[in-house]
Design brief:
The structure holds two protein chains of two kinds. By secondary structure, chain A is of the alpha+beta class. Helices cover 36% and strands 26% of the residues of chain A. Chain A is elongated, with a radius of gyration of 29 Å. Chain B is α+β, with helices and mostly antiparallel strands. The model of chain B has no long low-confidence stretch (mean pLDDT 86).
Chain lengths: 312, 305
Amino acid sequence: MSRKIERLINLTIALLATKRYLTKSEIFRTVEGYEGSAETKERMFERDKDDLRSLGIAIDVGSFDPLFNDEAGYRIKSESYQLDLGEITPTEVSLLSLAAESWQGAAFADQAQSAILKLSSIGVPADPIDIPGLSPKLANSSNDLETIAGAVGSSDYLIFDYLSPKLLLEKREIIPIALSNRSGFWYVSGVDSAVQEVRTFRLDRVHGAITVRNNREAFEFPSDFEFDQIDSTSAIRFAVIDVRKGKGHALRALATSLQDLGEWDQIKLPIYTIEFLTAQILWYGDDVFVHEPSDLREHIVEELQALLVNHE
Amino acid sequence: MSKNVSAPLLRTARLLDLVPFLNTHQGIALKDLAVHFDVTPTQMTADLMTLWMCGLPGYTPLELMDLEFESGYVTIRNASTLAKPRTITFQEGVALLLGLDLVASSLPEDRTDLLTAVDSLRQRLTEILGVPIKLSVVAPASGAVSTAISHAVQTNTGLEIRYHSLYKDQVSERSVMPLDLYDSEGHQYMRAYCFTANDYREFRVDRIESAIAAAVPSDISTDSMNQEKIRFSIVGRYLSRDVAERFAISDMPLGKTIELSSFSRQWIERSVMASGGAVVLKLPLNIRSEVAKSAQLMLNRYKEA
């Protein structure tokens, strides 16, 4: 095994050090470790190229001599091999360490750790940040994050079972474009194959494993996607409700305007979905009264009638 | 490195990363080096032995890497080709970008120096990734609050907090001694001794509106009262994901009685109200009749209006 590792390292060094493309025969003649029949060497080399590529090392294939286009040559461009973050300051090193440590014990912990090793190899010492207690953590992470990030990188399809609002499992297929975390929950957004539009899914509502299917077609990232589409603040409709003084704190937190009515305050707040807002309003019982829109009022009245019938 | 990379390849990657690390950490103790790369000292010695055989074509002492590690301290020379660290992988970049976003949303707003630095790092990392992936993390709690809590836990000091209780629909001011922070069901909680309640309490961090360092008594009374859980039972009328998530039940067999318990009577009543027609509260009877009374009261108001 260590012969193979030596060969891979020697090949990397040779392809990095060369200023021009090396032909296969040059590689077989000069790089240590290529032995056996021509066919064996050929097979070894093909496998080695794949192995280096799987480590993220890009091998550039070009012509040995621009005038004679007969034999392919190989090299690794140092600009694609080396980490280039430009000038990096000690404060930036600390911020990157904090970013990596936020994954402690969570999904990307290994990736964050190997990134930090590479960064520390730059040799810039960290300058600790003067905010005591600053150590944010990415909690509740799911192992699916790695799968999803991989699929974003190659624009592959993700196929999974998703729990619908009616508590039924539905098959969904998306090309993922975004990962986000809101209020401690992870979301993946992607172009849904069924509707050809961006949809967002909460990861803890995905049941079972996520399957990845290779996408061989070109994929264009939707350029108009913004995260505020998944935040409730982008609602187009608004509700007008009365909230008793000193009550309904969660609804007050969403209010875009407030009018003092004495015993009550009248607030205006965005409607994300009627169902979601209905549940929030009913939570506060008779401390909240809905004025408009009428469909929200009707929905509340229907639910109240059902509650009355169910509990009489 | 992703999990599906085989062991020899993982080792190749480690050796490639070892060279630039040694270049900037000349004379590092072999056992410290092993810790950095998360391997045993024996494995690290084997790695260095392998590396020692590698170099530029020709492979005479002039072209091989010059490694010295017999003394237990490692130095490297003649390794200029691999001297610079490898570029980060897509997954490593995603990990750093998400982490940076969390750091940015945890920083105080007036630290524009640090916020600008995070922005610049994000831009440079995004450029390296070469794929326009969108990544965003918003810290669930205010940065100032979580920072104040972590600091209080580390230094064993007290806090004055403003806490919003969703069940009681109240904002209260409390004096607490934070003990630790933990995560459960997607939310972060602070365990603390509350001097206002004279008992141990758990607070959801995203509902703490402010936290300021404050002096608290050093003796914590141990005769805390134990709360009893209230048992209740519900029956599902139709399937609803919101209801399943609200009552933290994995499935909802319709028409079957589901037995549950909670510390708060208010929580039970409010959760049943919020579920509308999807759920029937069977027991306890006193909360059940409160639900009917509230519903009647509210219906009357809507009819009058």
